[in-house]
UniProtKB/TrEMBL annotation, chain A:
This is Mitochondrial import receptor subunit TOM22. It is a single-pass membrane protein. It comes from the Eukaryota. InterPro entries: Tom22, Tom22_pln. Keywords: Membrane, Mitochondrion, Mitochondrion outer membrane, Protein transport, Receptor, Translocation, Transmembrane, Transmembrane helix, Transport. The lineage of its organism: Eukaryota, Viridiplantae, Chlorophyta, core chlorophytes, Chlorophyceae. Its main location: mitochondrion. Belongs to the Tom22 family. It comes from Dunaliella salina (Green alga). It is found in: Mitochondrion outer membrane. The chain crosses the membrane at residues 31-48. It holds the Pfam family Tom22.
From TrEMBL, chain B:
It is found in: Mitochondrion outer membrane. It comes from the Eukaryota. This is 40 kDa translocon at mitochondrial outer envelope membrane. The keyword Membrane applies. PANTHER family: MITOCHONDRIAL IMPORT RECEPTOR SUBUNIT TOM40 (PTHR10802). Gene3D superfamilies: Porin (2.40.160.10). Its main location: mitochondrion. InterPro entries: Porin_dom_sf, Porin_Euk/Tom40, Tom40. It comes from Dunaliella salina (Green alga). Belongs to the Tom40 family. Keywords: Membrane, Mitochondrion, Mitochondrion outer membrane, Protein transport, Transmembrane, Transmembrane beta strand, Transport. It is a multi-pass membrane protein. The keyword Nuclease does not apply.
Amino acid sequence: MLSTISNQAIQPSVQQSAIFGKKLFCSFKKAAWIASTTSLILLIPLIIEMDREQQIIELEKEQMSVLTGNAGAK
Amino acid sequence: MGLIYSKADGGTEPPPMPNFASIGAAASAALKREKPNYLELPQPVRYEEIQRENIMVLKPDTFEGMRFEINKPLNPYFFLSHALYMGNLDLSTGSKQMLKTSVGTYEFGANVINEKYMLLGRLSNDGRLSGRVKYDFTNWLSSKVQLQLGTEPGQSHAMADADFKGSDWNAQLKVGTPSFLGLNYFQSVTPNLSAGGELFWLQTNMKSGVGLALRHQGDNGRHVSTAQVASTGVMNLQYSHKVTDKVTLATDLLWHWGTRDACATVGYDAILRQCRLRGKIDTNGVATAYLEERFSPGINFVMSAELDHFHNNYKFGFGVVAGE
């Protein structure tokens, strides 16, 4: 008798937590999708272009130092 | 570029001393700045260009599909332009229903640009002919005429405006065909602050409106803030800041107090040597990015992306713009 009552008391809360867990997972999926696609178009090109800019600046510095270095060596 | 000295002499000479005179000059210039000369205020920007810095950062022309444009100069003053666009036009009204139609258009243009005048003509393959003439009569009066002819009735209209420039103010009078009349005035109040207003009147809808605008630029134009209020129930606040000479950040707040609708935007604009990248994010759940990459001098590759998360509407486009 007591076990059946306690089972009935437990089940709604288990159901509720399952529903809550599903909703949480659903909103986690949505948030992950929005965050990843938005950062893909906003941040990734910026990082790539900043990287290329750094490479160009380093290349120019190297070329300049090579030119002045050659003049000094001679 | 900093201290550059040649190593040709073997490095025997010591590096030159830093120049301290520039600091003294900056201090005396700062003292002079405290007393603005109110009789000689600078010319403010035109009323249409109050939001110029913000629009450059936050409003790139994104598109969906393929775009191909060629600007071909035949003369130092005359150039032809060919513009091809194949893609989707978004006609969704903002409700849940998404409506897109595929269009393919070709537009031919002929342009003459001189110091005193500018003539632009465009003819598109769906029969729309548009032209713009801008002429500077004197250094205080210039005028512009815009004409558009369409194939369907009701698509043709014309608009003429006259710009007057004083020493520290400018005004504009606009007249358009389905009886539109507009007048705006902008005045410098201090060397950094300018204020003005506009009036417009549409006879067909019996609509008229008044607007006020304020623009402040600080620190030699490094940051610009504008505020605009209109009697049509719109308030717009904007701020843009040039963080370094390559990166500008901008933000915008648009508030319709009639429909209680507000939208805030934050965006950046990075002008690097090989490309120009603009990105922004909205409170309507829209993220936009626009990249212009220079493949070789004169050939730019353009990519645009717009993600609308609330309506699940994703638009991507690419194109090539050749010529300047």
